[in-house]
Amino acid sequence: MPDTTSGIVAARLNGDVLKTNFADLHAPLGEHEATVAADRCYFCYDAPCVTACPTSIDIPLFIRQIATGTSEAAAKTIFDQNILGGMCARVCPTETLCEQACVRETAEGKPVEIGRLQRHATDTVMAKQAHPYQRAASTGKRIAVVGAGPAGLAAGHRLAMLGSDVTIFDARTKAGGLNEFGIASYKSTNDFAAREVDWLLGIGGITIEAGKALGADLSLDDLSAQYDAVFLGVGLGGVNSLSVDGENESGVSDAVDFIADLRQTSDLASLPVGRDVVVIGGGMTAVDAAVQSKLLGARNVTIAYRRGRDCMSASPYEQDLAASKGVQLMFNVQPSAIHQGEIELAYTDGSGETVRIPADQVFKAIGQTLVTDAGLKLDGRKIAVDAHGRTSRAGVWAGGDCASGGDDLTVTAVAEGRDAAMDIHASLMGGK
Fold first, then answer.
1. Distance CA 247, CA 176 (A)
2. d(Cα 213, Cα 168) in Å, to the nearest integer?
3. Could you tell me the sign of the dihedral formed by the alpha carbons of 351, 357, 360, 366, in that order?
4. Element (H, E) at 342
5. Counting C-beta atoms within 10 Å of the first and last residue's C-beta, which end of the chain has fewer, N or C?
6. Furthest-apart CA atoms within the chain: distance in Å
7. Which residues does residue 343 pair with via DSSP β-bridges, in sequence order?
8. Where in the chain is the domain with CATH 1.10.1060.10?
9. Strand, coil or helix: what is 38?
10. 39-126 belongs to which CATH class?
11. Above 70 in pLDDT, residue 2?
12. What is the pLDDT of residues 21-45, one digit of tens each?
């Protein structure tokens, strides 16, 4: 139940306002708009945008295909490298990846709209519902994938396409992982994440078993005994602690849970939000929680980050988005105590000074941790993997946020799942 005594209540805004607030952040391009946008591309031979893309999509080729009126061919070019290209077009920080590397950005300060063009192409094909790939002849191999997020889905699809039978296990009751539960609602509207999963499963050969978590319901020993190979894409389910007095008070919760609740609700007006919200952290989760708090009707929303602006993992674009929605950003501060209706922040410059600001709701967004390492060797706080995604245990691969080496991005998880799948297939087929 909402804690009405602290000011955390539902329905601060009416349904019409909420619908407007949570509309698609970037409207899709129409046919003419897509053609005009595609015509700005120089179609570089040694394109820096391709190098900047973690999935190495041939960006000049797919944009040329859009420019020549063959958007379905463009989508195939994208999906060959990134089967979750539809979601990545919506959530990728293109402003720090492909679009930042664009020659137009370097020359004019205005890149080709690669992300929106990618969405145009992938949406065109997905709207037809028919899956663009067919399975190869059966390999007779059975693969277990643990985690139905971007890495697991990408690995499962590639393995199924190559002819293996895949079972994807997931701890939640619904597939999609971060795409379904962990991103802002205005970035993925109209239940797109679930529709993308259904579309991906059109390849055939993939079974999803929900409500089964590694450690609690599944053991690596059993999976290794029952399947020819195992891929772990379990993400990071644990949340780091603030370790300050008052952390367990009413009104203090994890930002990831707030975002998940928001993503799954059918009635935004049912979600309680405070008058004065403070989000602790400096990444994408912090920005998503802060912006959505504001969109739900919070009066004052503050992001408190322990370092300077240039150290935030949230991109400058995301920082500007937060500011444009009325979110205040405080730098070089960290919580020292949480009181009833207030949070005490200490400056991190060593001065010992503190400041108190109103806070009837506090969200923690200071990073996540592994729920279980399944007895595998770790690299820091993640599962250690080599360049092919192989773990310390023979027959077990890992990728995505749970594995070492990559940044915590959807597009990187897709690349790691895809590449591990290729290595699994090669290993099982004797290097063919």
1. 30
2. 11
3. negative
4. strand 342-347
5. N
6. 67
7. 338, 357
8. 39-126
9. helix
10. mainly alpha
11. no
12. 999 999 899 999 999 999 999 999 8
What's the N-to-C CA distance of the chain in angstroms? 58
**Cα–Cα distance for residue pair 6/81, rounded to 1 Å:** 49
Distance CA(432)–CA(16), nearest Å, equals 57
Domain with CATH 3.50.50.60 in the chain: 4-22+239-366, 142-237+370-428
Residue-by-residue DSSP string for 346-412: EETTSS--EEEEE-SEEEE-S-EE-S--TT--EETTEE---TT-B-SSTTEEE-GGGBTTS-S-HHH
- Length of the chain in residues, anyone? 432
- The yes/no answer on whether domain 142-237+370-428 falls in CATH 3.50.50.60 is yes
d(CA 343, CA 418): 44
φ/ψ region of 63 (left if φ > 0, alpha if ψ in -120 to 50, else beta) reads alpha
| Placement of tokens 């203090």 in the chain | 252
Pick the CATH number of 4-22+239-366 from 3.50.50.60, 2.60.40.1180, 1.20.1250.20, 3.40.50.620: 3.50.50.60
CA–CA distance, 286 with 239 (Å, rounded to integer): 13
pLDDT surpassing 70 at residue 4: no
Give the mean pLDDT of 131-151.
97
Mean pLDDT of the chain: 95
Q: What is the DSSP letter of 204?
A: S
Specify which residues 277 forms β-bridges with.
301, 361
Q: Which H, E and C letters describe 283-318, residue by residue?
A: CHHHHHHHHHHHHHCCCEEEEECCCCHHHCCCCHHH
The tokens of 212 are what? 């089964």
Distances (CA, A) of 139 to 99, 143, 152, 245, 390: 40, 11, 20, 57, 21
Quick one: which of 417, 56, 424 has its CA closest to 232? 417
Q: What is the CA radius of gyration of the chain?
A: 22
Asked whether the whole model's pTM tops 0.70, one would answer yes
Residue 313 and residue 326 in contact, taking contact as beta carbons nearer than 8 Å: no
Instruction: State the Cα–Cα distance between residues 58 and 69, nearest whole angstrom.
Output: 17
What is the average pLDDT across 70-90? 97
pLDDT of residue 6: 60
